[in-house]
Amino acid sequence: MLFQLSEEQQMIQQAARDFAKNECLPGVIERDEQQKFPYDQVMKLADLGFMGMMVSPEYGGAGLDTVSYVLAMEEISKIDASVSVCMSVNNSLVCYGLQQYGTEEQKQKYLVPLAQGKKDGKLYIGAFMLSEPEAGSDATSQRTIAEDMGDHYLLNGTKNWITNGSTASAYLVMAQTDASKGSKGINCLIVEKDWPGVTIAAKENKLGIRGSDTTTVMFTDVKVPKENRIGEDGFGFKFAMKTLAGGRIGIASQALGIASGSYELAKEYAKTRKAFGTEIMNHQAIAFKLADMATKVEAARLLCLKAAWEKDNHMDYTLSSSMAKVYASETAMWNSVEAVQIHGGYGYVKEYHVERLMRDAKITQIYEGTSEVQRIVISRSILK
Ligand code: CAA
Ligand code: FAD
After folding, report:
1. Residue 237 Cα, ligand 1 centroid: separation in angstroms?
2. 318 lines ligand 1 (CB under 6 A)
3. 210-222 b/e with 16+ CB inside 10 Å = b?
4. 229 and 248, same domain (yes or no)
5. What are the backbone dihedrals phi and psi of residue 151, each rounded to the nearest 5 degrees, phi first?
6. Where are the alpha helices (DSSP H) in 189-314?
7. Residue 104 lies in a domain
8. Residue 204 has what DSSP assignment?
9. Is 368 a residue of the active site?
10. Each residue's pLDDT tens digit, 272-286
11. Is 171 in the pocket of ligand 2 (CB under 6 A)?
């Protein structure tokens, strides 16, 4: 077994590291305070080819592997998880779903600009809409209705907590067509933000990833042409689950970045801060915290890379992506709390970045399936 990145993967990692340092770090505290969407950063990510990293060049993507995606997500998330969540949703939920299950017409019309992150020089990104006020973890309980009208669907309902909700141009919306069929009555429809009947409701005021755009989106009698359905009638829930298996690799890598960013800041601080006549790293209580943080980062990274490798090798990665997500997100939380502790009072103020990492870490245990949901997926898989 070779634990070595290819030259191309190392180049992508370095490009993402440079991008995070040069483009994301300046202004990250202000964007968090002011809840400002990182528009310039996302436009530059698009120029780098990072908004459609795994999409084939035939459809405007960079044609890279999932391992490269994990490496890039980790580097960007060390600095700004509000940028990386936008990147993750576009890459692994929206572009992946369209590339894998979309028709040729859907790919030409929607995937090409989504993978490029731009259309006519303007931002063009996507959103993935599964959650509703009454259907979060219990995702089959969809209340949004896509009524079959023959040549089109009539879409009515409310989706909440939508990442990129107001900035996205194209939405992948899960909705119930035939409730009597349960999860097999759900469809996934491609909806454009500008269509009549689409309303963007209030933006959420969040604990963390405050620069990311999280809104409720409502649909009132939205006419969606039949050709905008992804897959066969009733494929929508399976589509969502299959797509989320890859999405969870993205969020696991985001959590990994928050965990490794926290560790790196804490290590540097411990080398310079003095107490009782010596650098605090020389106190074993601090050195042991750093040892645990480093070990957890390594384990989380290996889980993320294994899930990515399985995906790249066309194996079933559902179990490994849930394992990566639950472990990396719990490590992000643990490491970021310890990073604040190692910084003492300085950790509690914004200039040192670790308090933001701690606030950002929490969401990784909630979205794309809570830690409890990941344990449902894992336990069902190992016990079946
Ligand atoms: N691949 C293919 N099919 C799958 C599947 C998978 N990974 N997982 C489930 N299915 C199929 C099942 O086989 C079943 O079909 P059959 O009846 O034909 O066997 C059908 O889907 C229903 O599955 P379950 O009976 O397992 O459904 P459940 O009600 O027990 O729920 C669950 C399972 C894992 C809890 C699921 O509901 C779930 O993942 N919930 C969490 C939802 C979630 O992750 N939301 C994230 C929203 S996006 C987001 O959050 C983005 C962001 O923040 C940035
Ligand atoms: P609930 O499902 O009500 O869960 C509440 C608690 O009960 C949790 O701890 C949960 O783990 C636990 N629980 C529920 N069922 C079980 C069970 N069977 N066993 C054990 N414990 C259980 N969704 C999208 O579709 N698209 C997005 O882009 C998106 N972005 C998001 C961005 C943010 C910032 C946030 C906060 C959420 C986002 N979500 C998005 C929604 C997210 O996926 C849901 O919040 C998440 O799936 C949990 O659903 P819920 O909030 O309804 O919690």
Report:
1. 7
2. yes
3. bbbbbbbbbbeeb
4. no
5. -95, -5
6. 236-272, 284-312
7. yes
8. P
9. yes
10. 999 999 999 999 999
11. no
Q: Closest Cα to atom 43, ligand 1: which residue? A: 369
Range of the domain at 115: 7-123
Task: Looking at the CA of residue 138, tell me the nearest atom of ligand 2.
Answer: 2
At 134-152, the pLDDT tens digits run 999 999 999 999 999 999 9
E-assigned strand segments in 18-169: 118-119, 122-123, 126-129, 145-148, 152-163
Whether 205 and 254 share a structural domain: no
Q: Please tell me the predicted confidence (pLDDT) of residue 1.
A: 85
Q: Which atom of ligand 1 is nearest to the CA of 161?
A: 53
CB 39 within 8 A of CB 31: no
Looking at the structure, do residues 225 and 335 belong to the same domain, yes or no? no
Residue of 134, 192, 368, 372 marked active site: 368
Residue 99 belongs to domain with CATH number? 1.10.540.10
What ipTM was predicted for this assembly? 0.99
239 lies in a domain? no
Distance 348 CA to ligand 2 centre (A): 28
Cα(362) to ligand 1 centroid in Å equals 22
Q: Residue 50: CB within 6 Å of ligand 2?
A: no
Low-confidence ranges of the chain (pLDDT < 50): none
